[in-house]
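Suppose you are handed a protein chain with no further information: no name, no annotation, nothing but its sequence. What can you learn? This example shows the usual starting point.
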Amino acid sequence: MKILAVDDDENIRDLLEASMAAETKHVLTTASSGPSALKIVSEESTPFDCFLLDIQMPVMNGITLCEKLRRTKGHARVPIIMLTAMSQKKYIDRAFKAGATDYVTKPFDFLELFSRISNAERLSKEQVLSKEGRSEVATLKRDLERSFAHSLSEPVEIGGVEGVVGYVTFENYIMQLSRTKLMRSHVFAVKIVNVEKVHRSLSHIAFHQLLTDIATTLSVTMSQSENLITYRGNGVFLCTTNAKSDHSQHSFEMMLNGQMAETVAARFNNERVNLSVGEAVSLMSLTRAGALFSLQTAATSAENRATDRKEVLQKMQRLVRTRKRSGLQNDMERRAYEVLLRDAMKDEPKKGLFGLSGVGLRLR
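A reasonable first move is to predict its three-dimensional structure. Written in structure tokens, the prediction is:
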């Protein structure tokens, strides 16, 4: 694998070169600063397969360099591993938002470093295979369709939306959080109701556009600096938040559906898309593995909520059909369904932790 390591400390560069040469077959190039790294990248005929970036450097720090590399042709999805001292972990949040995929702390545990590089190598190979597969498509239309083709369960990457990262990056972010930060962090999920039907009715491109629209709405609504969003697959988005909110789970759900309604109507004709919001789940855990388990708990909450909403929507459709008829029996049936609907909707979920922004979004 072709790797570029950028660090202003000559000892670190020498250490990386020696360890790579002794333990791996990777081809390592080093640079002492961000500007020199960008110059090396611009002069290379083929893109690098992986970057190792020190966060704290003079002239241009590693986070800024990460952002610039992501905008450089051929490096939009290349794995980027940040190198940081333990005291610098507060910068990791910013690094992930800038496009980093993983991080390693100094002084290096070389077993951990090589493990992270191996993960990056697998990711790089998958991206190469994906690119080669797309290049075989005969026409531009087929190429475009194939590039967006994916199973419903696949955790599709959504690019170009602030605060939205790939699922692997999202898990890496959760794993690096300090125990103190885990204690005050929460995660909640947003689920597309009846997603199987929506996925079947839309083209691959249209479904990807729908995911992008939902991610954009979440990003704008949750514009605090430390929030991260990812798409997990099966119509489920996961969102981290530290901010307390007066909004309930139900009012946040209503707001999202209200904001999405106009977009869906404009882009997808008569397609009906409803979103369900699960309860916020604390990431507080004695282990980081326990924090990852919280992601599943949050997803399950949204899944259950989506099932409830689907049943309510079906009852509402049945009620509309019933109201079109007349007679005592139909009146009794109509009243029975009205009672069912009231029972289904009267218990508003408990208030969760949803970081919201914008004027006029305080629903009660």
